[in-house]
Every structure is written in structure tokens, then in C-alpha cells.
Design goal:
By secondary structure, this protein is mainly β. It contains no helices and 29 strands. Strand 7 and strand 8 form a beta hairpin. The protein starts with a strand and ends with a strand.
Amino acid sequence: GVGTGWVNTSDGEIFICTDATTGENVWYNVGGGSGDVEPWGFPGTISGYVAGGVNPTAPHLDQIDKFSFSSDSNAVAYSGVLTQVRYSPAGFTSNTHGYVSGGGHPPYDIIDKFSFATEGNATDVGNLISVKADSAGISSNTNGYNCGGYTSANSNRIEKNSFATDGNSTDVGDMTVARYSPCGCPSTTHGYLGGGKGEGIPQQNVIEKFPFASDTNATDVGDMTIAHQLSYGTVSTTHGYAHGGLTASPINIIQKFSFSVDSNATDVGDLVLGVYGPSGQTSTTHGYSNGGHISSGNIGNQIEKYTFASDANATDVGDLVVNRHYAAGSQK
């Protein structure tokens, strides 16, 4: 129960239980070391959310869609909207809220959050260091990260926002290559970034990672299977995934790379449709891809899912409320 003490006899570290929820205990480190013991909060078990984006008939959206993880079905409209219509924002997720940071057009520095438990309009809870769009969003248990992006120049900045308190982001490190439109994937300990491109530099195949435990720069740890931009990242407990993207045309590749060893990605399946700029969500068992730019003037509304249990192609399991691309994804 809450208040129980635990001593690690190997290193002398002492922990106190602060949350005894079954399967989700939290143990606070009161010893001389660092690092609490807590459940990984990123994957969802209930719903996926899609926020903002671009629609052919109403170019910039403030709409939020949600869909079920427990059954294959169409999305429904969330009972609230973002504070501004925008496309290409970064999305990250706490246990209780979805976050949408930055985006265009024009470029914004706004950080919005919306509640999973009580549906309503998003609220403006802080600002990025500068206005920018086309960033990657990454979530740890305690913070959201906005990585890269573009305004008047390519950005290499890794910015961090606390989930515990509303406030502005802080600059905590640099990416190895300044660029926009990479995909973002969190493990329990690191944020991973893959692909992207920048003004004056070609599409990239780099996989880089940065630690959550300390504020520091990212390091290059591998390569994607192909240089590309505008894919979206999902994660299992052991691997990061990137689906879709753009080379010279939309691609349907699902790529995966290991969290346990630094290595290159492998091609493990295909989406139903080749898309760039899709949204993505992560459940405990599946990665989801929704919407995206299919071809010139053709934007999708499909919800696809692929399993983490085996390497396989995605299946079409429903439709979004509106066709859209360049949206932010989150999950509960």
C-alpha cells in the first residue's frame, strides 16, 4: 500500500510507494540515487485522438476526432476544439491530456492541452521558445518534447514541457541535424527521431536518440531503411515504428527499429495506402495510421492499424470524421 518502503539490497537505494494502483504502482526514490519506479504511461488502452490538420474543403482545422482501440469502428467528433485552426503541429500525451504544440499557418508558438476525461475546448497552457511548424512530438512519463521544425530556418532544438505544471517550454538539447518533418518515438528512457529534411539539405535517413533522464543533445544511433520525411511514429515496449512518408512520392512502408540496441530500421510491412503526413497513435498492442496525403489533391480519411506482435501489413479498420493530413496524434 501507499507508504510501503522498499530497499534494493544490491545498491542500497530506498523507495517509498506513493501510488498503489494495481498494475501501476509508483515508487519514489528517496535514496541518494536517481530514478523512480513507475508505469510507462505512453501507450493507450481506450481511444486514439487526431487534432488539427488540413482538409480539402476547410484548409486548416481545429477539430479533434477520437476513435476506439477496443473495437474497429469509425471516429467520432470530440466535444471541443483547439484554440487555433492549424496544421503540422507536434502532438504529445500525458496520462490525462492530449497536447498540441506549434503548427501553422501562420506559424504558432501555442501549446494547447485537452482533457481525456472531460471533453471540452482545449486551453492554451504555454508557449514554445519560438513559432514553428513541422516538429516531431515525443512523450515521456513526465514531459512532452517538441523536436526540430521550421519557421524562417531549420531548427535543431529539442524543447521540453512539464505535464505536472502548465508553462512555457525550455531548450534542453540539440538534434544531430537541423530539420523539419521527422517522426518521433519514445521508449521508457529515450526519445527517438527518424528521417526528415530541411531547407538546403536532402531528405534524411538518420535515427537519433536523446535521454529523458538528463537534458543533453541527441546522438546518431542508426539509419532508416530509406531517406524520407513526413512519416509518423508509434511504439511497442521494445521497438519504435515509422509508417508512411514521402520520398519523391507517398510511401506505404512500415519500418521498425530496436530500443535495446542501437541499430538500423527494417521494413516489416505495408500500409494499405501510401501516404505522407498521416497522424498516428499507439495502443498497447497496435500502431495506428490515419489520414494523410495520398496523391495530388487526394487526402485520406482511413484509420489503419498494424500489430506489434508480428511483422505484418496494416488493415483498414474505420474512417475519420473528416479527411485530413498534417494532424497531431495522441492516445488515452
